[in-house]
Amino acid sequence: MNLKEQIENYKPYNEQEEKDKEVMLKYINTFDDVLTRNNEFGHFTASSWVVNKERTKVIMIYHNIYNSWAWTGGHADGESDLLKVAIKELKEETGVENVKVLKDDIFSLEIVRVDGHIKRGKYVSSHVHLNLTYLLEVDEKEMLKIKKNENSGVKWVKLEDVEKESTEEWLIENVYKKLNKKLEEMKNVNNTSK
User: Fold this and answer.
1) What are the tens digits of pLDDT across the range 47-56?
2) How far is the C-alpha of 25 from the C-alpha of 39, rounded, in Å?
3) What CATH code would you report for 3-192?
4) CA–CA dist 149, 151 (Å, integer)
5) Which of 76, 95, 96, 100 could potentially form a cystine with 35 if both were Cys, beta carbons 3.0 to 4.6 Å apart?
6) Are 34 and 28 contacting, i.e. CB atoms less than 8 angstroms apart?
7) Contact 34, 55 (CB under 8 A)
8) What is the DSSP letter of 54?
9) CA-to-CA distance for 66 and 151, rounded, in angstroms?
10) Mean pLDDT along residues 37-45
11) For residues 118 and 186, what is the distance between their CA atoms, to the nearest angstrom?
12) Nearest 5°: phi and psi at 67?
């Protein structure tokens, strides 16, 4: 299934996802190049909500550009398999080697504003990330390593502490709270079906 079909088949969780799904599909139909940074208005990225086996903690990195604790993720850079991108970015940014995919489908989608910033000595204009998030699991015993050119910290954070760790208000209110709520609902469904 191609990227457009995956997004078309995704069932939005809330109004934010409904609207962002609609905009993402318009974007794909409007622009030829949505998978690389050559499209300076916006491009696809993949993130992951990486939980431990008990589903009580998530891996967060201290992102150097945003000066905040954040989820892992990165640019598609031409790759249309965004689950593959999410896993690659997780491994690069945290040093983990063994990743379990908990859900092959998109776990969440959101359009994230990126303010202008300096990257590798050059100015990058403000733009948007059309982001797909995937739910992944990593063993808490795995060694975590910093990727110095992108982050200056990697750690496990209790789900209830995510809001205290991040300083990015929009992400906290519109993404991290939603991801934790969806995760909690999944745990409840799994517990009821046992």
Assistant:
1) 999 999 999 9
2) 16
3) 3.90.79.10
4) 6
5) 76
6) yes
7) no
8) T
9) 10
10) 94
11) 39
12) 50, 50
Domain ranges of the chain: 3-192
Residue 22: both structure tokens together:
């609609």
Q: Which two tokens stand for residue 152?
A: 């200056």
Under the banding of pLDDT at 50, 70 and 90, the label for residue 192 is: low
Instruction: Pick the range with the lowest mean pLDDT from 45-54, 59-68, 98-107, 185-194.
Output: 185-194
pTM of the model: 0.93
* First CA to last CA distance, the chain: 31
- Cα separation, 68 vs 175, whole angstroms: 15
- Alpha-carbon distance of 114 to 119, in angstroms, equals 12
**Cβ neighbours of residue 155 under 8 Å, at least 6 residues apart?**
59, 60, 144
Please name the amino acid found at residue 129: H
Task: Name the nearest CA neighbour of 127 among 70, 44, 21, 3.
Answer: 44
